[in-house]
Amino acid sequence: MQKKIKTALISVFYKDGLENIVQQLHQLGITIYSTGGTQKFIEDLTVPCIPVESLTSYPSILGGRVKTLHPSVFGGILGKRENKEHLVEMKEYNIPEIDLVIVDLYPFAQTVVEQTLKAASTGEDLEEALIIEKIDIGGPSMIRAAAKNHASVLVVAVKNDYTLLERILIEQKGQTTLEQRKLFAIKAFDLCTGYDMAISNYFNQSEFINPFDKEKKVLRYGENPHQQGFFYGNTQEIFEQLNGKELSYNNLVDVDAALQLIAEFKNNFNSQPIKTLSTGEDLGDTEIVFAIIKHNNVCGIAVRASVEESWDAALAGDPESAFGGVLVCNTTIDLSTAHAINELFFEVLIAPAFNSDALKILKQKKNRILLQQKTNLNSTHQYKSLLNGILTQQNDKGNYTDWKEEGGREATAIEKENLIFANIVCKHLKSNAIAIVKNKQLIGKGCGQTSRIDSLRQSIEKANRFNFNINDAVLASDAFFPFDDCVKISHAAGITAFIQPGGSIRDKDSIDYCKTNDLAMVITGLRHFKH
Fold first, then answer.
1. Per-residue pLDDT reduced to its tens digit, 373-396
2. Domains in the chain, please, with CATH?
3. Which runs of E-coded beta strand occur in 160-229?
């Protein structure tokens, strides 16, 4: 059901990226309500704006702690447009319908990290009062209210979605579909979940408050021999080392990538297969996964009925890159597989278990690192140091939000199975990422390129170099296709089905090409970009 945006409530901590949205709303004649600094930002753009105080009859009070927590605001967001009693009450109390809510959250996680680093460098205690003030109350409440009432209200909770909102305003003249409103609502609820988890982690003194408040281990060196390296943490919680030299900085980076990838599939620590479709279908329920990681990227992965078959297929995907790689499997390594693996030089092998006779074979090389995995990774956040500080974000969970068949036909059962698998593989490649999959085997991949076309050409060249037949293969892209060139090149190579997140203002170009040429294309609504 389409709804026209007539009114919008905007109240954001970060104003950057908002200018075009405000201008589009104004051009469409949409009434804007706002608060405090956001109101001033809008008025400085010479766009009329109604202060929220005119609805609530209250100013911002208690040092800004209470601004929007009022029936006139929440009634406008939560009122059901098809409910006559709601409409009568809203009219009686002069509550306007609010059709669009643009609200972000106070930077709680960023403040925790900043204060943690400051305390670590100065030796002073955390400024807890400052951290507490960054616990947003009104923001999550408005976001949840708007997401709950997505039947009538569109909620935009992060500035990364401004581009999509702007596209809706321009192309659809402010009209929104139920499907679009539901997609934004899902993102909003996910955001609130992560926000609450960060707060809970802080009060529980968990890993999130200070990644450095852990056991410190001196490594042989960092990424290069002239760099000193350290690891803060306890790897023994995750795996037991059965053989080999000490793990290096680069080993640890690749081991982390391997464990993140293998956690996508059913294994000894996840008795319930990971659900990938709303219908309850799953991937990797009874089959065995073997993967090869090189320089933090998947270079080979396959699903087969036996361990050795899975290893053979993973290796065949790129036998050149596999040399010196990190290997990971989701089940026990047996003797025949150990003999096959033993022919290759590799740095690390990770598995939940090893047969005793397989271990004897694999331990013949004293420096070869063998890790017996004890549990899946359970951290909720990722960290990266830069600009004398730390970036943190939630882990990238899930495969896709939607499964929208937008091409010239619906994907076949086999294509669908391979598309699910390809999308997971692509998620674990560096951007721009392309994964070509056939028979649940990675047969070509391109990653780390500055152009998506370069990544595509690299993936096709890889597949051809190792003599794979690309006809009827499927392709996953970690981000949208801004033009139809990638689809055309892929089609010429023999690829018949695509999976990508969508979100480009020119999605229609690729979709139209698929419709004209009877190709399947799935739009997921969930981007897996990885720098």
1. 988 887 777 777 777 777 777 778
2. 3-203 (3.40.50.1380), 216-373 (3.40.140.20), 404-523 (3.40.140.20)
3. 175-176, 216-218
